[in-house]
Amino acid sequence: MFLKLSSNFPPERGAHIPPDRAAAILERCLSFGEQSTFDWVVVDKPIDGSVFVYKLSHGEPLPEDGYGWLDDETAYRTYIGEREVEILSRNQGFGFADQFTYMTRRRYKLAGANLQLLHYVGVSDPAQQMPVHHHLIKAFPRDPKTLTSLTSLPAQPMQAMDTYGNMPRRPSPAEAHRTPVARRPRQKSRQSTQRPVEEDDDPSGDELDSAIGRIIALDRYKRNHEFMDMIFSPHSTMYLVPVKTTPDDTPERIAAMKQQIEAVDRETDALVAKYAEEMAHLRTSATVAAASPVEP
Questions:
Q1: CA 62 to CA 64: how far, in whole Å?
Q2: 63 neighbors 2 (Cβ within 8 angstroms)
Q3: Spatial distance between the Cα atoms of 46 and 103, rounded to a whole number of angstroms
Q4: Distance CA 2, CA 172 (A)
Q5: How much is the pTM?
Q6: Could you write out the DSSP letters of every residue in the chain?
Q7: How many angstroms separate the CA atoms of 49 and 106, rounded?
Q8: How many CB atoms lie within 10 A of CB 166?
Q9: CA atoms within 13 A on the CB side of 132
Q10: CB neighbour list of residue 111: distance below 8 Å, 6 or more residues apart
Q11: Domain ranges, ordered by start, for the chain
């Protein structure tokens, strides 16, 4: 389970977040201190473009995110100003029973801090997708049947679904014991009225306080249409093969064909000239024998 920051970030597709921008987001989250709130969530295959911040202590392994991976996680470090940033990447992710990989993951963490940022970007180029073979799997995906055991608690009901993949939310142990037992039903009813506002995937919050209204409206428009496409489409967009719009002929092949055409034209002109010369010789000859004399 992830201890995820309650603030939501707008999806970012196409390319991973640059390290300097990821470091700026993490430093800003750290500056809020105790004002930031976190929730325990079960992450299950976040969709393309998902971005979220979570807490993870030093030396603690990354919780499962639902994906399986054919490659090991690679890491490198860089400096953004005076702050050291570590970037850990995986590029061959797939879900349960999938035949090809289609997801990449990159996580960023600041040296000496317990906050990390995760960003998922889908692979749209079929040439970069790898077939899934059992003997090549480095990390196995989560079986959907195990989600029930992960999200169910005997004493507390499962809360609403989060926005990144199939991530059922449930309260942290600190929140469960924050108030007396007698007052929990009242607190639960208050959460039921406020939860839709908190769980709404609106690109609003401290991370977007400087954004203009048009950007927020455009992001909501794209998000709603993507959700409708995911609901009503009979095929998953992850497996749609894009149509190749570029021609197969390369500039080198076109140049070679032009040279071949020019060579054929020169050969044809030479044959036509030779034929005209022979016909002129025949017309000026008195007899056929004179035109083609036979040597004794």
A1: 7
A2: yes
A3: 9
A4: 10
A5: 0.53
A6: -EEEESS------SSPPPHHHHHHHHHHHHHHGGG--EEEE--B-PPTT-EEEEE--TTPPPPP-S-EESSPPEEEEEEETTEEEEEEEEEEEE-TT-SB--EEEEEEEETT-SEEEEEEEE---GGG--B--GGG-SBPPPPGGGHHHHH--SSS----B-SSBS-BEE--HHHHTSS-GGGHHHHHHHHHHHHHHHHS--S-SGGGTTS-HHHHHHHHHHHHHHHHHHHH-SS-GGGPPPP--S-S--HHHHHHHHHHHHHHHHHHHHHHHHHHHHHHHHHH-SSHHHHSPPP-
A7: 11
A8: 17
A9: 20
A10: 83, 84, 85, 86
A11: 2-200, 247-281
pLDDT tens, per residue, the chain with 296 residues: 899 998 889 999 989 999 999 999 999 998 887 788 899 999 999 999 999 999 998 889 999 999 999 999 999 999 988 889 999 999 999 999 899 999 999 999 999 899 999 999 999 888 889 999 999 999 999 988 887 777 654 434 334 344 445 544 444 444 444 444 444 444 444 444 444 444 444 444 444 454 567 777 777 888 887 777 767 666 655 566 767 666 667 788 888 889 999 999 999 999 999 999 999 888 887 555 555 555 55
Cα gap 29→203, rounded to integer Å: 16
Tokens found for residue 227:
């959700």
